[in-house]
Design a protein that fits this description.
By secondary structure, the chain is of the alpha/beta class. It has helices at residues 40-50, 65-76, 119-122, 140-153, 184-189, 195-202, 246-259, 264-279, and strands spanning 3-7, 11-18, 32-38, 54-58, 60-62, 79-80, 85-87, 91-100, 106-113, 132-136, 159-163, 179-182, 210-214, 220-223, 229-232.
């Protein structure tokens, strides 16, 4: 078991399940609705606790009813919130998600009225006590300060960084992490049609780093510090039910395997299997029963 800190956001997901995606200006009845905790770092934290790790989450939690609900959900999933930045104002980040039951795709409208976690708060955390630090690639200016601060204080603990979306200046973060977890959307948005071509292009920006990229139904790809490439196929379920949080689940699976002493090849395979099981069920609970 490792003691892991995840840094990012926690959100409230309001999920409407529909039989097909609606056309603009159409009224469509939802077949089901659920409300759940969301946010990349928070989701990854909750999957990691299922895998047996001790997890602390560092993010901003609002004092409104939704913020209190998110905080309680994290605690219910054995994720500690003692290092969160609590603010009495603002609205908890909320994602309004349309989940298409015919193919499992999700469309998200996100609203937030809350500041991001700032460096001043992070600088006071006892990060030396953790075995692993995992960051979302957001709030780039403050995250860069956090990563540099971690580099100054940590001895040999791994630092992973999720790069899901294109953000101004995000390349600045690449040399500061040991493991970079890219989404296919980010890579194709940069104009690349393969993970290998993308890895070639950014290798000088992440010297000595481990590069990982998910690629949907083609599984995931990785390159280690010695420029060796790896690939794991996808492990799709019999029926795709819910893709919400699949990337967060993959990240947790990869961290779990590497933190437990697995090779990169083993970790890639483990992460793909876990993510495949997740898309075959609704929500993120009970993943280890797959």
């Amino acid at each position: 078991m490792s003691h892991i800190l995840t840094v990012g956001i926690a959100a409230l997901d309001i999920i409407n399940v529909v039989e097909r995606y609606p056309q603009e200006d159409e009224e469509l009845r939802a077949t089901a609705q659920r409300v759940a905790r969301g946010g990349n770092a928070a989701n990854t934290a909750c999957v990691l606790t299922q895998l047996g790790h001790r997890i602390d989450f560092a993010g901003v939690l609002a004092g409104d009813p939704d913020g209190l609900r998110i905080a309680q959900d994290l605690l219910d999933h054995k994720v500690s919130t003692r290092f969160c930045q609590h603010v009495p104002f603002g609205k908890a980040p909320t994602s309004y998600i349309t989940l298409n039951s015919s193919n499992g795709s999700r469309t998200i409208v996100h609203y937030r009225d809350l500041p991001e976690l700032d460096f001043t708060h992070f600088a006071n955390l006892p990060i030396e006590k953790f075995d692993w630090l995992h960051f979302e690639g957001r709030n780039v200016t403050e995250t860069a300060k956090m990563l540099r601060h971690a580099r100054e204080r940590l001895v040999d603990q791994p630092v992973s960084l999720e790069v899901e979306k294109a953000r101004d200046g995000i390349d600045e973060l690449f040399p500061l992490a040991d493991i970079l977890l890219f989404s296919r959307a980010f890579v194709t948005g940069r104009g690349f049609d393969s993970a290998a071509a993308f890895f070639d292009a950014i290798s000088e920006q992440a010297p000595g780093g481990m590069l990982v990229c998910t690629w949907g139904d083609r599984g995931a790809y990785a390159r280690d510090a010695h420029q060796r490439d790896y690939h794991s196929p996808a492990f799709p379920p019999a029926k795709v039910v819910d893709t919400i949080g699949a990337g967060d689940t993959f990240n947790a699976g990869l961290i779990d395997a590497l933190a437990s002493g697995g090779t990169l090849e083993q970790a890639l395979n483990h992460a793909c299997r876990l993510a495949g099981g997740k898309v075959g069920q609704s929500g993120l609970d009970d993943l280890t029963r797959q």
